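Task: sequence design from structure.
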């Protein structure tokens, strides 16, 4: 399993979320936004165990095998489409809800995934709420599963797609099984305690290439403690990466291959 993205609209900045500071590309990337939104958050006892932006039932689940081996995919209907019910809490404004729904519907034009409003007949569904930061479980769980999009910090098109790709079963690009052939992780520059963000996982890559432009790829300074890169492309260190603002073609291809669209 892997991660990536596509489409051609800029991520929507929300009015009322504070004046935006002019920052470098790395701070407007998905990983930059996720880092700011999740930095120093204090989670409540009733929230899941969260590593970076991925939720687990407990700390013991952190190093589990890719979830598709445990049948975490959303089921396909007889019409060939994959219906994923969702419920959005009423804490969002109309404009904030529109950003979320735009991300949900962006899958319809290029994949067989259809996010549909939840009703009482649906057993499994995604429960979208403004919790402490941005996070999602990986793949389908039993019953309702929380996907957090905090009102201040998480409501961007690319972040919505990123978290939804987690919910569909995808991990971060820099963690995929073949990453060492394409990217070097420079742990000496990573903030202490955040090394887990670069754990390599036995992902199922769907026969697709490593994608520097994936919406699941973090930028080169992600979690840097000294302003030096924490990742560099290999063998060409000058390849740009981690700047996606929406799903790439490979992200879409992986969804379609995983779900046999």
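Answer:
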């Amino acid at each position: 399993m892997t991660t990536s993205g596509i489409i051609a609209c800029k991520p929507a900045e929300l009015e009322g979320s504070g004046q935006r500071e002019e920052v470098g590309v790395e701070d407007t990337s998905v990983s930059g936004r996720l880092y700011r939104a999740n930095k120093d958050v204090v989670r409540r006892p009733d929230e899941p165990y969260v590593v970076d932006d991925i939720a687990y039932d407990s700390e013991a689940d952190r190093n589990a095998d890719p979830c598709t081996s445990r049948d975490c995919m959303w089921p396909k209907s007889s019409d060939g489409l994959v219906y994923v019910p969702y419920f959005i809490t009423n804490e969002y404004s109309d404009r904030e809800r529109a950003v979320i729904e735009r991300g949900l519907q962006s899958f319809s034009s290029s994949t067989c995934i259809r996010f549909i409003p939840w009703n009482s007949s649906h057993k499994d569904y995604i429960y979208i709420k403004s919790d402490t930061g941005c996070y999602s479980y990986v793949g389908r769980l039993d019953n309702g599963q929380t996907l957090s999009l905090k009102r201040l910090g998480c409501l961007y098109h690319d972040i919505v797609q990123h978290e939804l790709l987690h919910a569909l079963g995808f991990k971060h690009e820099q963690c995929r099984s073949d990453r060492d052939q394409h990217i070097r992780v420079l742990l000496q520059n990573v903030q202490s305690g955040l090394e887990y963000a670069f754990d390599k996982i036995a992902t199922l890559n769907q026969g697709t290439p490593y994608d520097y432009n994936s919406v699941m790829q973090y930028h080169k300074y992600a979690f840097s403690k000294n302003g030096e890169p924490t990742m560099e492309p290999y063998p060409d260190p000058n390849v740009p990466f981690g700047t996606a603002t929406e799903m790439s073609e490979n992200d879409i291809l992986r969804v379609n291959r995983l779900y046999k669209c």
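The chain has a mean pLDDT of 81.
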